[in-house]
TrEMBL record:
GO CC field: membrane
GO molecular function, one term: ATP binding
Membership in a protein family: Belongs to the plant ureide permease (TC 2.A.7.19) family.
InterPro entries hit by this protein: UPS_plant, Ureide_permease
Membrane topology according to the record: Multi-pass membrane protein
Identification of the protein by name: Ureide permease
UniProt-annotated location(s): Membrane
Transmembrane segments: 44-65, 77-96, 116-136, 143-165, 177-197, 270-291, 311-335, 356-376, 382-402, 414-433
Primary localization: membrane
UniProt entry keywords in alphabetical sequence: ATP-binding, Membrane, Nucleotide-binding, Transmembrane, Transmembrane helix, Transport
Organism for this UniProt entry: Escallonia rubra
Amino acid sequence: RGGGGGGGNDSGMDFLGVPSLIVVPIQRSLSSGLKMYLVESKGGAIACMLLALSFLGTWPAVLTLLERRGRLPQHTYLDYTITNLLAAVIIAFTFGEIGKSKPEEPNFLIQLSQDNWPSVLFAMTGGVVLSLGNLATQYAWAFVGLSVTEVVTSSITVVIGTTMNYFLDGKINKAEILFSGVGCFLIAVCLGSAVHASNATDNKAKLLNLENGKKDGTGAKAVSKFEESYANSSGNNDVENGTKNAKAGTADFLIELENRRSIKVFGKSTFIGLGITFFAGACFSFFSPAFNLATNDQWHTLKDGVPHLSVYTAFFYFSVSCFVLALILNITFLYRPVLNLPRSSIKSYLNDWNGRGWAFLAGFLCGFGNGLQFMGGQAAGYAAADAVQALPLVSTFWGILLFGEYRKSSRRTYILLIGMLVMFMVAVGVLMASSGHRK
C-alpha cells in the first residue's frame, strides 16, 4: 500500500525510463564522480508513480487469492511482511549506498549513526499506521470485496492525507485543481459504500432463490448447508491449485467460495466489513504525511547541521516498524485469532508452504511499489503523489478477472460500480494534473 512520499534531498536524476531506474541507478558526474540518483523531474516522478501503481494494485489481489483458497491470513501476512522488509533493505543498500557520500547528502549507512531521531520517529510512526491499515484490509477484502475495499480506502487516504500533505508541502500544488480531485474521491467513497450494500443485497437474493420452487425456501437452508460443510471441513485446501466448479456470480459459487475460504463471511453484518474498511482508510491517511515530515522536517525538529533523512533511510526505518508491528500482531493472532478464524501456532506456520511463494511475491511487490512511490513524491509533491492511490483500478481489474466479483449482479449494482470507477478515474486524473515541482 502506498501514499505520497519522497526523500529530503534536492539532488535529483534525469529519469529516462523505468528500466534505467532499476538497472542503471548511477550516473557519472565530471566534477564529483559517481552521484546518487534521486527523482527530480515531474516526468520522472509520474513514471515512478505509474510503475508503483501496477505493483501496489497487484499485491492485494495475490493475498486475496490465497485467502479465497483457504490459507490463513496470519500465515500469509507473516510471509508477506518478511519480503516487504527485504525490499526496503535492498533499496537502502543499493540506491542508498551508490555514489559518494556528502555532508549534506550522506549515504544510508552514515545516516544510521547520525542524531536524526525526530525524523526517524516520524518515519516509524508512518510504518506503524501503514501496517495497521494493510492488516485491516486483509480482512476487509473478504467482507467487502477487493474492488470496493481498495476504492474506499484509497479515497479516504486522499481526502485526509492529501489535504495534510498540501499544507506540509508549502502549497506547491494547484489548490483549485487539487481539491476538486479530493471532492471527486469523496464522492467515490460514497459510491463504493453503496456498491457494497447493493451487492450484499444481490447475494442475499441469490441465496434465497437457491432452491427456487421448493416450499420451504432456501435462505436459511443455504446458510445451514455452508455451516455444516464448514464444521466438517478438514481444512486441507489446495492453495496453489484451488478449483472452482460453480459459475461465478451464482449462489452455488458463493457457497462453494465460502466453504473454501479461510475468513467466513456468511451471517456477518454488512457493517463489519465497512467498519474495517473505514478503519484501514483512516490508518492509510496518516502514513504519507508522517513520511513527508520524516524526509523534509517541516516542523524543524532536527538539530542545526543535521541533514534530512534521505528517502532510502526513511523508507528503511518505515519498513522496520511496519515489520515489527506486523510480527507482533500476527503471532498474537495465531493463538488468539479474530473473526472466528481457527487457531494456529508458530510450528503450523513454519510448516505451511502451500502458497508461501505467492505471499513472498506480494511482499516484494508492495515493498518496491512503496519505495518507487516515495522516490517519485519528492519531485512532484506529496499531495500529487497520492495519485498512486489509483491502484484500485488495477485491483478491480484483478477482482473482476480472477474472482468474478459482481458477476450476475443487479442493474443497480452495475450502475453504482461504473459510477464509482468513473468518478475514481476522474479524481486520479485531476490529482495528477495538480502536480507541482519541489524546488
